[in-house]
């Protein structure tokens, strides 16, 4: 049994997807009016203001948030909502891409002051990944509310790890406003070989872990992954009306280059190309939905040319070069869900088509794969089925372990 207290939210319907103004006007009555047919909708925890607001009162709060940390259809930033409701927020902490989500991939970000709220913003993707005791000074409650996309190499779960560790070491409780995982319907991929541990590969999990942020936080605690096996005190607010097989359309881009629902759903399968000399569309308006390289001219007719796009890709790979390859913008992503597995076909195909195979992979590939084996298997001409077989028994062991931490069906 988990020691974490789980707060199961009331089943809020669409009439309760309100902004802070709506809450202030209706705080005496939070029930939706009775109707003959009430449609249940997925309701992220942050939208459920009446469920958590009293718990936050009287506390000095820090918030790890970004542009995805919003409330309701009006997309009110959760920090603005809490401040307007009289909650004391002392500091904002920002992950990769920054608090406003407008920094390019991998760009180091400095501490600053938020122009809207006047609050200090501490970067956890600049001088350090982990909050210091000084960063947390004066805070007695932290909130984590960031939309994740469910893959090992998306760095928000790494930032979550370091925040949990810092909170545990400084005796600060961490509240998690949970959000759905758009890639949460299946679990697949090679489990990390810890010899290749990195910020994009911190834990012994497969590429697709099939968990929400709150479930993942429970796993970090339960598996003793924090330094010295410290435990972070968690208080979790769940997503209402959610099961992991439900489709979830993200209302805000989780990062600059995941700018469409198509890119979010293709991301786990396409990100491996970051570790090759193939462009995955950075420097275009369609990142993670198109792939290609100059060397593939003649093999493919579809082409694109990456350019500098400040805030998305300042200096994209293969900048200014015409790339030839595959257009996946209209690919039916339901196929990926039906298959229930990581797609390696595009990676294998591109390797086989690449003229000088000795230049296809770059060193970063092993960090993304979480091992050296996958690269060796592709070079050796292994089939997708043979590669997948090598993921066992690690993948099955992870799936069994994972069940202890699940909050949703």
* Class per helix and strand makeup: alpha/beta
| Largest sheet properties | 8 strands, mixed
What strand order characterises the main sheet? 1-10-9-8-2-5-7-6
**If helices are DSSP runs of H or I spanning 4 or more residues, what is the number of helices?**
12
Mean pLDDT level:
91
**CATH hierarchy class name of the largest domain:** Alpha Beta
Keywords: Signal
GO molecular function: peptidoglycan beta-N-acetylmuramidase activity
Protein name: DUF1343 domain-containing protein
InterPro entries: NamZ, NamZ_C, NamZ_N
Description:
Pfam families: NamZ_C, NamZ_N. GO terms for molecular function: peptidoglycan beta-N-acetylmuramidase activity. This is DUF1343 domain-containing protein. Keywords: Signal. InterPro entries: NamZ, NamZ_C, NamZ_N. With 409 residues, this protein is an alpha/beta fold. The protein folds into 2 domains: 5-251, Uncharacterised protein PF07075, DUF1343 (Rossmann fold, 3-Layer(aba) Sandwich), CATH 3.40.50.12170; 261-371, no CATH class. It is built from 12 helices and 13 strands. The protein has helices at 20-26, 49-56, 78-84, 156-169, 213-222, 261-270, 334-339, 345-353, 364-369, 373-379, 384-389, 394-402, and strands at residues 5-7, 61-65, 70-71, 76-77, 89-94, 112-113, 120-123, 141-145, 173-177, 234-237, 290-293, 303-304, 323-327. An 8-stranded mixed sheet has the order 1-10-9-8-2-5-7-6, sandwiched between helices. It has a 3-stranded antiparallel sheet with strand order 11-13-12, with no helix packed on it. A two-stranded antiparallel ribbon has the order 3-4. β8 (141-145), α4 and β9 (173-177) form a beta-alpha-beta unit. The longest helix has 14 residues, at 156-169. The protein is globular and about 65 Å long. The protein starts with a strand and ends in a 7-residue tail after the last helix. The relative contact order is 0.13.
């Amino acid at each position: 049994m988990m020691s974490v207290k789980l707060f199961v939210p009331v089943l809020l319907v669409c009439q309760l997807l309100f902004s802070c103004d709506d809450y202030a006007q209706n705080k005496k009555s939070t029930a939706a009016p009775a109707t003959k047919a009430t449609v249940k909708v997925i309701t992220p925890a942050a939208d459920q203001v009446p469920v958590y607001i009293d718990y936050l009162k009287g506390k000095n709060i820090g918030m790890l948030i970004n542009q995805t940390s919003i409330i309701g259809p009006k997309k009110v930033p959760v920090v603005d909502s809490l401040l307007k409701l009289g909650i004391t927020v002392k500091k904002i902490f920002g992950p990769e891409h920054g608090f406003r989500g407008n920094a390019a991939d991998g760009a180091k970000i400095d501490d600053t002051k938020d122009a809207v709220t006047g609050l200090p913003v501490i970067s956890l993707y600049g001088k350090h990944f982990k909050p210091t005791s000084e960063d947390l000074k004066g805070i007695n409650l932290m909130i984590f509310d960031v939309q994740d996309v469910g893959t090992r190499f998306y760095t928000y779960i790494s930032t979550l790890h370091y925040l949990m560790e810092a909170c545990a070491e400084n005796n600060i409780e961490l509240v998690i406003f949970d959000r759905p995982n758009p890639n949460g319907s299946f679990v697949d991929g090679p489990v990390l070989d810890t010899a290749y541990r990195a910020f994009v590969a911190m834990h012994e999990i497969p590429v697709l872990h099939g968990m929400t942020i709150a479930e993942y936080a429970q796993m970090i605690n339960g598996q003793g992954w924090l330094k010295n096996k410290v435990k972070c005190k968690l208080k979790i607010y769940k997503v209402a009306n959610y099961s992991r097989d439900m489709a979830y359309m993200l209302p805000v881009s989780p990062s600059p280059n995941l700018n469409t629902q198509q890119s979010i759903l293709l991301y786990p399968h396409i990100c491996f190309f970051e570790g090759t000399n193939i462009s995955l569309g950075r420097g275009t308006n369609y990142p993670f939905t198109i792939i290609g390289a100059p060397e593939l001219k003649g093999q493919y007719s579809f082409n694109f040319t990456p350019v500098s796009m400040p805030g998305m890709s300042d200096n994209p790979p293969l900048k200014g070069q015409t790339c030839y390859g595959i257009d996946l913008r209209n690919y039916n992503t339901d196929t990926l869900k039906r298959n229930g597995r990581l797609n390696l076909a595009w990676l294998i195909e591109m390797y086989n088509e690449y003229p000088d195979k000795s230049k296809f992979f770059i060193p970063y590939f092993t960090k993304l794969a979480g091992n050296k084996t996958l690269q060796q298997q592709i070079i050796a001409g292994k089939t997708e089925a043979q590669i997948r077989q090598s993921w066992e028994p690690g993948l099955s062991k992870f799936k069994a372990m994972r069940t202890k931490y699940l909050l949703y069906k």
